[in-house]
């Protein structure tokens, strides 16, 4: 039976979390909202509508949510041609592909943003499939993105490992019944990742690659 290595993208494979913080902060500022950057950072990883509700409250008109999301997308889009992959992100995916894992991305990004992220990783030859925001009804921490990734890979939860950088990732993976690995490259503390379900935590993709044989991805799950 096959096995799947499911990866979040922002903050896990590409160093974009603080770009999201800055561009969300500016989108909120332009709309007249004073939202601290530290609060935005803790919310990164949620889908746009969920992030807005988390930071501003649930009682938001749909046109306001759409306008804020569009503003963030426009601001963030100015970085699409220079998004920086985290060190050894592509090498990690290729190594897992060579080791017989089906590598699947599970991300809240879609469309041109997802295309830019994949260009930054530069490992399309190692990626089996992508579960994007366009494919599910609810984003993380709902298990739907991870469950859809497993469907794309054609493997059950017990044959999969999910790698992410936020508490939302760890909660989504735990709810989907998969083993979870955290990375610190998104800026979330180790203790928070572990409390949310991370079985092991590494500094970044390079550290995970160097420690692969002893990690949950080094075993036949």
TrEMBL record:
Pfam families the UniProt entry points to: Hydrolase
Molecular function terms from GO: phosphoglycolate phosphatase activity
Gene3D superfamilies referenced in this protein's UniProt entry, alphabetically: HAD superfamily/HAD-like, Putative phosphatase, domain 2
BP GO terms, sorted: DNA repair
Membrane-crossing segments per the record: none
NCBIfam families, sorted: HAD-SF-IA-v1, HAD-SF-IA-v3
PANTHER family: BLL8046 PROTEIN, PHOSPHOGLYCOLATE PHOSPHATASE
Name of the protein described by the UniProt record: HAD family hydrolase
